[in-house]
Specification:
alpha/beta, TIM Barrel, 8-stranded parallel sheet, 34% helix, globular, hydrolase activity, hydrolase, Glycosyl hydrolase, GH
Length: 405
């Protein structure tokens, strides 16, 4: 088995003043105050979201001022010893789609399928990657935040979405070979049979796998805020990703996880954080955890879903919330990855048979059995095709294999 690295802990950076609209009028003083909040928790990184159409408002125009603002934020993070992962195509954020006008109105064309649009995005990715390549505290570039949320407004076949991501990851690698190149999808890629973005891309494209665990996907309705299905969902999704990868050593980054209301009421949020992290942090595949999000959303801003307003570790006036204290305690707690775990055999292969993904979704028979067994301790998932492979099992710290009852 390979040696395990120290887990990374971070926050998805949502500015306390003006949400991500603050990119339109960037304030270094405001950003510095926000980053001071995050550093006080013992975090080691942030994930940031420059908004694509504000940087590239025309297919042939990339605004240098906007790129410089991003670099300024990166340098501010370095002052607080925070590393930075940069998402490129925003894309989809907090229920809104942000797309440049040159893919909308009478220009309407799919950003995944149209060659001219893809050429414009290629220039954008190349420009930002080159600008960020030599910043020592930048460690990763992600193509975008849950880009599969941009479908079906941007139609794509599975082959088109796969080729799109592979092409842009190659562009990012060529421009910034030192940085991790990543591809992020929300969990429809794992659970919805007709979704045109497939698990195979999540576990093979990019330098590691990312997952986003949100219990408002139906899992919280199974057993309420602090039930085992709810608190183990992050670990379940990490396990699905680890089991789906052809490489047993491929890490999985829990790139988004949060305590959304009303699924997790504020009074239950600290206990949710404790129970969720207590389970996922011992997963041998886990690379790190990045909380969504850093700061609450100002209620003077209209039209966001209710759950988006209070997801922060800090309030908009920089008060530290109980969830932040729970996360800080978890960071200070030393944990050893679980060794010699049992594994539940999964007869459904979502990578080979994406049409069967519903058989793994929350509430399915397989998920229900995994949750039941997981209450006794760490539990892996192993594909049926690899259940008799000793080298594979050893690489994933699996001791015994359990057949589903």
């Amino acid at each position: 088995m390979t040696a395990h690295h120290a887990l990374r802990f971070g926050a998805n950076y949502v500015p306390s003043s003006g949400w991500l609209y603050s990119w339109l009028d960037f304030s270094a003083d405001d950003a510095r105050r926000d980053l001071e909040d995050l550093a006080s928790l013992g975090l080691d990184h942030i994930r940031v979201f420059p908004v694509w159409p504000w940087i590239q408002p025309n297919r042939a125009l990339i605004r240098r001022r906007a790129v410089d603002d991003l670099l300024y934020l990166v340098d501010l993070a370095a002052e607080f010893e925070l590393d930075v992962a940069v998402d490129l195509l925003q894309g989809h954020l907090s229920s809104f789609d942000f797309l440049p006008s040159w893919v909308l109105t009478w220009h309407q064309r799919s950003l995944f399928a149209d060659r001219a649009v893809r050429d414009g995005i290629t220039a954008y990715v190349d420009t930002l990657a080159r600008a960020l390549a030599d910043r020592p505290n930048v460690f990763a570039l992600t193509l975008g935040n849950e880009v599969n949320n941009l479908w079906p407004a941007n139609p794509a076949t599975p082959a088109q979405s796969s080729a799109w991501a592979a092409e842009l990851l190659d562009v990012a690698r060529a421009a910034a070979p030192r940085l991790l190149g990543l591809y992020s999808l929300y969990d429809a890629a794992w659970y919805e049979p007709a979704h045109p973005f497939h698990p195979v891309d999540a576990v093979t494209l990019g330098d590691l796998t990312t997952v986003h665990s949100w219990v408002f996907n139906g899992v919280s309705a199974i057993d309420r805020p602090l039930g085992p299905a709810t608190t183990s969902h992050a670990d379940y999704l990490v396990e699905l990703a680890a089991a789906g990868s052809p490489d047993p050593h491929r890490p999985v980054w829990l790139q988004e996880v949060g305590a959304p209301q009303p699924d997790v009421p504020a009074a239950d949020a600290p206990a949710f954080v404790h129970r969720m992290l207590d389970q996922v942090l011992v997963n041998p595949a886990l690379w790190g955890v990045t909380w969504w999000c850093s700061h609450d959303l100002d209620r003077s801003l209209a039209d966001f879903p209710e759950r988006e307003y209070e997801l922060g570790l800090f309030t908009t006036d920089h008060r530290r919330k109980p969830v932040a204290d729970a996360l800080a305690r978890a960071i200070r707690t030393v944990r050893t990855p679980a060794a010699d775990r049992p594994a539940l055999v999964c007869d459904t292969d979502p990578v080979a048979r994406p049409d069967l993904r519903a058989e793994l979704a929350p509430g399915s028979a397989f998920h229900t059995e995994w949750v039941r067994l997981r209450q006794a301790g760490p539990l892996a998932i192993v594909p049926a095709a690899r259940a008799d492979d000793p080298a594979y099992l050893a690489a994933r710290s699996i001791r015994t294999v359990l057949s589903r009852a």
